[in-house]
Inverse folding.
């Protein structure tokens, strides 16, 4: 034994970047938002009486509209940030990896735009 570490300093120091912390924080926030959503949707109100009118009444409150929007947007961002290391380790070719990541970011951008459009323009019954 020479006493040297086989991989230098990186063997003892984990490679953690900003996206790791963002995924962890968004996961905790998603738990709170999802718990609130499920509590209201399935526990506090009878699921058999749910209709479009119930949804419309719920979205008449700006608070519920903002919470549902935040839940959808945060879930999309959390998902795409969680896919970054999977794509990085699963695709060996750098150009292909760039195309896949750009496609994922573009798809998430379009979905966030659609969610925002619906949240801002939903008409009440």
């Amino acid at each position: 034994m020479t006493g040297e570490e086989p991989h230098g300093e990186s063997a003892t120091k984990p490679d953690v970047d900003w996206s790791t912390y963002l995924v962890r924080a968004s996961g905790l926030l998603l738990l709170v938002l999802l718990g609130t959503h499920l509590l209201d949707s399935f526990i506090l109100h009878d699921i058999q009486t749910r209709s479009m009118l119930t949804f419309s009444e719920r979205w008449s409150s700006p608070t519920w509209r903002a919470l549902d929007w935040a839940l959808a947007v945060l879930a999309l961002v959390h998902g795409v940030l969680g896919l970054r290391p999977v794509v990085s380790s699963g695709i060996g070719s750098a150009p292909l990896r760039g195309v896949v990541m750009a496609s994922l970011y573009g798809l998430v951008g379009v979905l966030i735009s659609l969610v925002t459009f619906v949240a801002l323009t939903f008409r009440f019954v």
Helices lie at 18-43, 52-58, 62-90, 94-121. The mean pLDDT is 84.
